[in-house]
Automatic annotation (TrEMBL):
Pfam families membership: DUF3960, DUF3965
UniProt-recorded name of the protein: DUF3965 domain-containing protein
Top-level lineage group: Bacteria
Lineage of the organism: Bacteria, Bacillati, Bacillota, Bacilli, Bacillales
Chain ranges of the DUF3965 domain: 86-371
InterPro entries membership: DUF3960 (IPR025046), DUF3965 (IPR025087)
Coiled-coil blocks: none
Domain DUF3960: 3-83
């Protein structure tokens, strides 16, 4: 049975090679405005309906057996079919396809090689996803994970060959072979989840994520790792307009907790993700109520006189204040926290940064308010 002809390029309905077959399995990208983009969006929505995906897979499987193969050029097509199976949650069928097409042997053979290309990485990833969903991971499969766990950010241009939803669910559910490595894995999951934060919304994984955080807390996972994941969920209410979702976590409060428990070693080991969280503070839109002003004041107090924490606050929070400074301090002015504003300008900002702000804004009235108490 052929797929819906209105949703595919009819010229490729009977492909002559694997390149044409692959084009048949990927919907058109939306890169235009106006009515045409609306049509393309509608086609993409229809393309991913379960019945259409099933007919597409059946057609592709028939074509795979007929087309000539040259130097593994069928692998991208098989990976695309595997991703379509994941889209409709038919994991067993996807796993069997990979085994029948020799990709299980391909992945295990690749483990003996020192370097992998992008096709090998994506094949290995889809293999362990499907295996974890069906028969469970075995010893060698943990070695596969070690080879690919830092690769996700380099796959952004290959989204037709892996499921972003499966990335999030896999890293949140994964339990290392050595239980002692759980804390390390949960921290390794932080930058992955933060990078894929928009997909948490897209696939409605908010409740799933919250439940996983609660489970980690009950299991005694390192509090700092748990806080990092709470920060990710706390950001969502600010970044996205989410109907019917009120994050149980407060972004500024969680940043305060992170810096309270983070020691020198933690800040050095996880420099990039802590920096990413703190860098968002100057652009945070939800400092509207007195308790969030208080949380920020407490954050400053926690970091003050700790050389490493002060370095993080200066580099990733206060160095970014510019045209957003007045909007950021507005709730501090409303709550008459002039001493805190004075500290921001004269303790946390460098002299150069403060003079730059004074050129942008007339801060004289603030100074007068501070002097008057």
């Amino acid at each position: 049975m052929l797929p819906n002809r209105s949703l595919i390029n009819e010229q490729l309905a009977q492909p002559q090679n694997f390149t044409e077959l692959l084009s048949l399995l990927i919907p058109q990208e939306v890169d235009e405005n106006g009515e045409k983009s609306k049509v393309i969006l509608w086609k993409r929505k229809e393309f991913y309906k379960q019945n259409h995906i099933r007919s597409l897979i059946l057609h592709a499987l028939q074509m795979i057996e007929r087309l000539p193969r040259f130097h593994k050029d069928e692998i991208p097509v098989i990976l695309r079919i595997v991703c379509l199976y994941q889209e409709i949650q038919e994991y067993e069928a996807g796993y069997e396809l990979m085994k029948n097409q020799g990709l299980e042997r391909f992945v295990y053979t690749a483990l003996t090689h020192s370097s992998w290309d992008i096709i090998t990485e994506l094949t290995a990833w889809n293999y362990i996803v499907l295996k974890s969903k069906t028969v469970g991971l075995q010893d060698q499969d943990y070695d596969i994970w070690e080879r690919i766990k830092y690769k996700f950010n380099s796959w952004k241009n290959y989204e037709s060959f892996f499921s972003s939803k499966e990335v999030i669910t896999f890293v949140l559910l994964f339990v290392p072979k050595e239980k002692s490595a759980l804390n390390e894995h949960i921290m390794e999951a932080v930058p992955i989840c933060n990078s894929y934060i928009d997909y948490i919304i897209h696939y409605d994984l908010l409740s799933f994520y919250e439940t996983r955080i609660e489970q980690w807390q009950r299991c005694g996972v390192d509090n700092r790792a748990v806080i990092c994941h709470r920060i990710i969920l706390a950001q969502l209410s600010d970044i996205f307009s989410i109907a019917n979702y009120d994050s149980p976590f407060d972004f500024i409060s969680e940043c305060r907790e992170l810096m309270l428990y983070a020691d020198y070693e933690f800040l050095c080991s996880y420099h990039d993700i802590v920096a990413a969280f703190l860098s968002y503070i100057p652009f945070f839109n939800l400092i509207q109520v007195p308790r969030q002003v208080t949380y920020f004041e407490q954050l400053l107090k926690i970091c003050k006189a700790d050389e490493k924490k002060e370095e993080f606050m200066r580099r990733f929070v206060f160095s970014q204040f510019g045209h957003n400074f007045l909007s950021f301090i507005a709730p501090f002015i409303r709550n008459k926290c002039y001493g805190t504003i004075h500290d921001m300008l004269f303790y946390w900002c460098t002299e150069e940064e403060r003079l730059r702000l004074e050129k942008i804004y007339n801060l004289q009235k603030l100074y007068e308010m501070y002097a008057c108490g």
